């Protein structure tokens, strides 16, 4: 067994975890899911879900990882016995499932960085999208995106992931702030912000049952939960770090970047007269591209916008690759680079159906939509449910003790956390699963 690395610094851990959390979930899915669910009302449910369900669940994953310092499968086995390996197995499966199409979207983003620089989509954004979103070009772009992620993970925790995310995450924040400041000067700013941020209470109540599963699924996805990522990243953390403080920093940063994304996207859409409600998953690419095509300095803005999205997607993809590589390094003697390439090959093959499928014009096919729906409505809630049951009941007081490690004076809070997990998080997930499965299969 190869000796286990650790983060060089606490900031290194934080930045890597933020890099994992901030991704396509914030910059691409959050704006379009908000739009699809009627605007600000969705934002309200999402914020509640992140705070009351996502945050406690994040701490549960941290506790498992730091207590055992093992990969996600080994961690559950160490703490609960061989039967509980299944929790780690479900997490690994969920992560591979999601990353298989995440990489394809990552490839699109790379194409849009290039397309912005050359102006290739400026004449006909729709035709450009059809050409790059599926087929051989999408396969090639997916491969390039994966190769970048594999390269970083192959270099290791300290020299690869930590160094890379230390550059990427601050760049994302600075560039997003600059883009938001610019978007607020556009003619559509006031309307865009109103659409995004002032909820219509009536629709909030009417739509609760359809919005809840989407909001909870989005909370898990955005915080990188249910995929073994936060278990794995916390397994490299020391006993003197305060997990609640670290978790809070991650949740707040991730939420702020999501809000910034809305502040960038909605004013642009309103300024260009594009109806956000009709902008599906690829329509957002199309809409943003159309906007850049008609704006002064559109090439530069396009490179910056899609460049930020690419950085964010990459720092998420590496976190998921690391879950698989960490599992394999704990169980074989093969070198880290070999294992990283191996995981990359598997992911490439799994992504081929999403990259090749041309079910609809624009390439966002039935396959892709089905994959995403299964992930949100079934796999993520199920995977987090297993973690919550394990930490809430099997670990119980041991989990409270681990959470308190490194955060003196948090005794009362740690107990509140345990009960939140047992009641609110569990209840929320069961409702989500019931509604989600209902909408998938009925
Ligand atoms: N948290 C990521 C995001 O919001 C989701 C993710 C992470 C997906 C890692 C895959 C792998 O985009
Ligand atoms: Na996120």
UniProtKB/TrEMBL annotation:
Its main location: membrane. The chain crosses the membrane at residues 7-28, 40-64, 84-104, 138-157, 169-196, 216-236, 248-270, 300-325, 337-356, 376-395, 416-442. It comes from the Archaea. Keywords: Membrane, Transmembrane, Transmembrane helix, Transport. The keyword Nucleotidyltransferase does not apply. The keyword NADP does not apply. It is found in: Membrane. It is a multi-pass membrane protein. One of its GO terms (cellular component) is membrane. SUPFAM superfamilies: SNF-like (SSF161070). This is Sodium-dependent transporter. It comes from Halosimplex pelagicum. The lineage of its organism: Archaea, Methanobacteriati, Methanobacteriota, Stenosarchaea group, Halobacteria.
């Amino acid at each position: 067994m190869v000796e286990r690395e650790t983060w060089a610094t606490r900031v290194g851990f934080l930045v890597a975890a933020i890099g994992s959390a901030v991704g396509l979930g914030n910059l691409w899915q959050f704006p379009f899911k908000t739009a699809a669910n009627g605007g600000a009302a969705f934002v309200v449910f999402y914020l509640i879900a992140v705070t009351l369900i996502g945050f406690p669940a994040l701490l549960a994953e941290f506790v498992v990882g730091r207590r055992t310092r093992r990969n996600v499968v080994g961690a559950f086995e160490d703490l609960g016995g061989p039967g509980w390996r299944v929790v780690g197995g479900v997490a690994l499966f969920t992560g591979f499932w999601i990353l298989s199409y995440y990489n394809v979207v990552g490839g699109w983003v790379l194409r849009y960085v290039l397309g912005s620089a050359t102006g290739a989509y400026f004449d006909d954004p729709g035709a450009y999208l059809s050409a790059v979103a599926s087929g051989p070009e999408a396969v090639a772009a997916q491969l390039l995106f994966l190769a970048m992620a594999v390269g970083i993970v192959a270099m290791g925790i300290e020299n690869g992931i930590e160094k890379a995310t230390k550059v990427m995450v601050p760049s994302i924040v600075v560039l997003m702030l600059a883009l938001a400041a610019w978007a607020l000067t556009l003619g559509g700013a006031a309307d865009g912000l109103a659409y995004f941020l002032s909820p219509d209470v009536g629709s909030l109540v009417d739509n609760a049952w359809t919005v809840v599963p989407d909001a909870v699924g989005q909370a898990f996805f955005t915080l990188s939960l249910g995929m073994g990522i936060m278990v794995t990243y916390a397994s490299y953390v020391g006993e003197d770090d305060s997990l609640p403080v670290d978790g809070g920093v991650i949740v707040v940063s991730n939420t702020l970047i999501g809000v910034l994304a809305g502040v960038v996207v909605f004013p642009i859409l309103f300024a260009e007269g594009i109806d956000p409600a009709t902008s599906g998953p690829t329509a957002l690419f199309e809409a943003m591209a159309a906007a850049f095509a008609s704006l002064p300095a559109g090439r530069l803005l396009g490179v910056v916008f899609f460049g930020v999205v690419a950085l964010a997607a990459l720092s998420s993809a590496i976190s998921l690759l690391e879950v698989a590589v960490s599992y394999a390094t704990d169980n074989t003697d093969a070198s880290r680079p070999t294992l990283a390439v191996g995981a990359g090959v598997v992911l490439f093959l799994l992504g081929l159906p999403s990259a090749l499928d041309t079910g609809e014009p624009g390439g966002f096919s039935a396959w892709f939509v089905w994959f995403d729906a299964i992930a949100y409505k079934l796999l993520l809630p199920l995977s987090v449910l297993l973690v919550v049951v394990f930490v809430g009941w099997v670990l119980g007081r041991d989990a409270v003790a681990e959470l308190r490690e490194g955060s003196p004076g948090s005794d009362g809070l740690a107990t509140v956390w345990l009960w939140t997990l047992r009641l609110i998080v569990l209840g929320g997930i069961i409702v989500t699963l019931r509604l989600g499965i209902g909408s998938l299969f009925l």
